[in-house]
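hey so i finally got around to running the thing on that chain from the lab meeting. sorry it took forever, my laptop kept dying and i had to restart like 3 times. anyway pasting the input first so we r on the same page abt which one it is
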Amino acid sequence: MKKALVCGAGGFIGSHLVKRLKREGFWVRGVDLKNPEYDVTNADDFIIGDLRNQDLCDKVLDQYFDEVYQLAADMGGAGYIFTGENDANVMHNSALINLNIVERAVKQKAGKLFYSSSACMYPAYNQEDPDNPKCNEDSAYPAAPDSEYGWEKLFSERLYLAFNRNYGLTSRVARFHNIFGPLGTWTGGKEKAPAALCRKVAETPDGGTIEVWGDGKQTRSFLFIDECLEGIIRLTRSDFTGPVNIGSEEMVSINQLADMIIGISGKNISVKNISGPVGVRGRNSDNKLIEEKLKWKPTQTLIEGLTITYNWIAQQVNTKMA
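ok and heres what got predicted. didnt touch it at all, straight out
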């Protein structure tokens, strides 16, 4: 039986990935600071612990794994990343995790190692026009991410690629573009835009108003979790190292995103734009490289994923309010 390790298995993407690997017949070890928040883990072995701790990493990576997925990071939505209040923790915590994991992956001669980077590492100067952002993979340099989160992701990309060159670590690097879906964080300050807007709409009565940060003209693309998992698996098992984008090319403004969610809800709700952290003006996945290298691209529409996600979050809200 093949073995897989999922670091960050208590998080949104990690918990979904564990399920996917179990369906494929893997024996799976998960590790995180916490259990999955909205579901029971499917991992065969789940270790609660801090991957910044070297002793824990020795315990976690104590054997050969056919596949290692490094998703663990200090992260959150715009309200966490762009205020500046969490910059030191974001950089220190995530970098330390990656330094620990990469060293032990080499020691145990891990089969394939997937690292989840982020589109936040792309230069801010290429994302000033909300209608024409430039996020193709070779546009990363000269580097100028809009946040310390993006700078740390850029450093860690280079870390895994350097270990690939110098130590023969079979690493794979992907840049995620706004992954969303059910069983993800939807309240508390670390939630991302789709979940935050779904929550606001679910909590707002018919005829009410929701607040949206910024002028609402800033653009993004959003990828449903199932598509993300497919991209992760295909990249990990391919002969392509990356970095490569894993995201959707269906770009919308944040106000358009809000309107789509309101439409799904069936409510008559208006949008009020207010001041708040927003990040770059425009960002959209460029999928030319992943199509070329993996012969694959996401196909699910945004509205399909949003419908599933809104219904799940509305259920959480109704349960909480009951």
